[in-house]
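Work through this protein:
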Amino acid sequence: MDVSPAKVQSDASEVGRPVHPGGFLAGEAGKSDHVKAGRIVDFPVSVVLPAGGTGERTGLQTPKQFCSFLGRPLISFTIQTFERVSWIQNIVVVVAKENMDMMMDIIQRFQHKKVQVIPGGSTRHRSICNGVMALGEEERSADDKPKVVIVHDAVRPFVEEDFLHKIAVAAKEQGAAGATRPLVSTVIATTSEGYLDHSLERAKYRASEMPQGFTYDVIYQAYQRCTESDLEFGTECLHLALQYCGTNAKLIEGPPTLWKVTYKRDLAAAESIIKEMLSQSTCLLTGESTPGVRSADVFQKAFGALDMLDVIPDLMGDNARYLLKAWNFIQVSFHSSCLSEVEDILVALDATNQALLHPPIVIWVHLKRTDEKSMALAESATIMNLASTAKLRNILLYGIEVHGSEDTDRWERSAPKVAEMASALIRDRNPALVGQLLQA
């Protein structure tokens, strides 16, 4: 097979622009619960991610799959989508030969698992073909060869496990299955002179999207039998399965989250979506002190704007699971010495390697009594030093200092402002404010 640089697939449609993909960040990579909600997969499934495109439509010099936001390239987010699905056996990423080293560096830097990187071809079909052939190599054992292959775009990071399950099961039963979306705009044909020829009845047509699934035998035979013209100019895998294997694909309408990063503005939209999702997983640590425990109800009311807020005393014992569940940690302290609690959170987060995927946020909320000696300069220096070290590990640390009293009534009056500031820090994830000791 040809292994020269691949070219990006033309976009099927502008359907389903940015929306909120509910479960994208749920679960630790590679440890999703494939039994819950009936998602039982008892056959081997592999994924082929063609990622050899040049990204011409973004107008950027860097191919869009390698463009970064939140400290990670886009393709890393897409790989994570499949890694968190435990029943997916392995992922073949197909990239242009000149990008092989870059891709290997991404795999190592973000500790992606189950990933094989191979060189692509001069067109989309040639790249997918290379990926399919790699899954059937003779040196693979029978257990390593997939029953079903899912083909997906490297620049569609928000596909959810429930939908992947539908595609995989339908592919196993029918031989092929693919995602569709309703057309938003009417499709018209034009004359060679640039005038309207005719239009199509929109209700009768659908946009073909990704992911698509196939039994391995079907997709393998389709690429073995297709013509050079197909490999050079074609883009639709389902069409090859129908034309060369007689396999009529089951079409399943997908959610709006299947949208594809095509233009430069889509990168900003993807970043905004992930920021929003990260902000909805917050853990409030009250400590063991009596004032801290009393403050729990006050904080829960004040942080009502946060969609997900768990209140616990610390991250010890069973509570350690929140290190893999939450992306934001608010530590409430009533004494300066309690800054050591923040250090404990930073050490624990670093040990989980969570920060390799997304930057967690730690906010130290210090309620300073009016009769307590001012230690603002010392505290600012300490939190700045901690924040600088944490930032090197992709953890963002902020501080909020509240001048008041441990008296519940006064604390209740301060809590809404603290909640507003903390919510803004969590939402914006602004690196410029890292290490600042903000006054509430």
About this structure: DSSP finds 13 helices and 17 strands in the chain. Confidence is low (pLDDT under 50) at residues 1-16, 28-37. The two ends are 64 Å apart (CA to CA). The longest helix spans residues 408-428.
